Amino acid sequence: MTTRSKPGRLHPKVNEALDLMERGRLDRRSFVRVAALLGVGASAAYAMAGLPAPAMAADDMPFPPDDPDAVMGGVLTVAMMVQRVDDPAAFSWTEMSNQARHVIEYLAMTGPDNITRPMLAQSWEASDDLRTWTFHLRPGVKWHNGDDFVAEHVKWNVERWVDPAVGSSNVGLSSIAALVDDVDTGEKNEDGTPKTTKRLRDGAIEVVDDLTIRFNTRQPVLSFPEDLYNYPCAILHPSFTAPFSDNPIGTGPYTLVELAVGDRCSLNRVTEMTNGEPFEYWGGKVYLDEIRYFNFDPENQLVAFAGGDVDAIYSFGHEQLAFAEALDGQILPARTAQTLACRMQVDVAPFDNVKLRQAMQLSLDRARIRELVFGEAGDVGDDYHVAPVHPEWFPLPPLERDIDAAKALLAEAGYPDGIDLTIDVGNTNGVWQQSVCEAMRDQMQDAGIRLGINVMPSSRFWEIWTQTPFGATSWTHRPLGTMVLSVGYRAGVPWNESHYNNPAFEAALDAAEAVLDVEERKVLMERVEQIMRDDAFVILPVWQPVYTIAKTTVHGYPPHPTNYHQFNKVWIG
Fold first, then answer.
1. Distance CA 252, CA 247 (A)
2. Dihedral (C-alpha) 477, 483, 489, 493: value to the nearest 10 degrees?
């Protein structure tokens, strides 16, 4: 039996977090994050932490307040790669989600301050044991076809996410994973072990009424609202059939009116529903009439801005910073957990040999790679997918380059005369990815590891990123290291491109996720990170610094560490 939080009653975990903050075991911003996740309004949480709240609207709204100087109308043009918009639940690029983000929306929204606020949900509460989460949906939200947005629509979406046929990465999120069980299919894998599939647990989702939905998890989950802003978690209308671009029904202020993959994507503000009635957007004023994305590869986006072709861009790399500083624009930097994961499939030869993988690991000087690629910007990576910006990051002793040890391991692995390997790279968000691989190549050769680099078009790379035995995959920022570890490295999840399967790693990750005390969680994360690094299946040498730029006439352009675009309050004047 659990006791659900009542309105006006602080969740006991909030009181626990407040005590931890007062004792110096939880920093003030981490307290605000936890309190907001547990139903405390963002401004109230900031006040409890003794911090000034950023300029935002009411606590039950995710957007900044209206700007009294804002000018209605206008077209915002943005340079970004323009991609297919097929099934949002299976999105694998942030750019795809940006093209759809103003059409279809999320239950919650995590802002640039890393604080999660209600979006299509108006509020939520958790049981004392964090196993039951109740979301109260925003009344009066309309789909573009005139239907009311109701709890059954949310249930339909979550059921799709856990359907293996959909292949959604959402099933790897801690919150969604806690709603499913692994069920024996009665079949066998190639190695003779039982073949399992993920299936929604009985009673996992309850539709309480039209505006209330309840999730019952098999284990405590703190991050439920935060997980729901993962970019494939946009809520679709139940009439959805792929591709979304052919019938873009949403709840957002815009609709997709043109999509030419590799060329342009245009969004127009919705004023009338398809039933002929006026459309009243639940989120208040929206200033822009149109948003237009024009296709530019990452290395050419800043050139397009300099030439006056666009008002803003998706991002530019550190190598272009001096160029950007000479332009007339607002440079918006962000320290992030964006990275390049050079991962190996542990069940494919020769990468099924851990000694080979460890030899590769010991052949590298990561600090030198960061210096060559980013100068003093960004952060040095150390082969575990938790970044210094993550609150639970535990700084393991840095890996030191040891060529003699690498050669010895290579010989033990059966390659005394060295080995030829090839890594696939698609430069999916800039040529810096190729530069990282080239630096790795130059260093590995000293140990007898001859690394070839197969550079392919980014669109081609994303067709094979989960199939290639050795690939350099761009991973975007997420607010928690535990989130990306769950999405990318748990056994059987769609984005486990390395085929990693280590029960000890998953048990350690489960233990870390269940702890609120950030200092205790850091201690538990030491084991998670150490297991991952010892297994040596991913080389992660750098954390990428991220920059974007907008014209000085563009107001309210929101920098986000994940490059998520939310232009509701952007205006031009």
1. 14
2. -110
Name the 3-class secondary structure at 37.
helix
pLDDT in the model for residue 189: 78
Rounded distance between C-alpha atoms, residue 227 and residue 223, angstroms: 6
- Residue-wise pLDDT for 225-251, tens only, equals 999 999 999 999 999 999 999 999 999
DSSP string for 92-136: --HHHHHHHTTTS--SEEE-TTS-EEESSEEEEEEBTTS-EEEEE
Q: By the 8 A CB rule, do 229 and 120 touch?
A: no
Residue reference for tokens 């009338």: 272
Relative to beta strand 290-295, strand 75-80 is parallel
Q: What angle do CA 393, 396, 398 make, to 5 degrees?
A: 125
Q: How many CA atoms lie within 13 A of 204 on its CB side?
A: 20
Cα distance between residue 99 and residue 231, in whole Å: 11
Joined together, the tokens standing for residue 242 give 């792929």
Can you give the residue ranges of every domain in the chain?
1-53, 339-543
Structure-token pair, residue 180 = 């499913």
Q: Where are the alpha helices (DSSP H) in 2-93?
A: 12-22, 28-37, 42-49
Predicted TM-score (pTM) of this structure: 0.84
User: CATH assignment of 339-543?
Assistant: 3.10.105.10
d(CA 259, CA 251): 19
pLDDT band at 257 (very low <50, low <70, confident <90, very high): very high
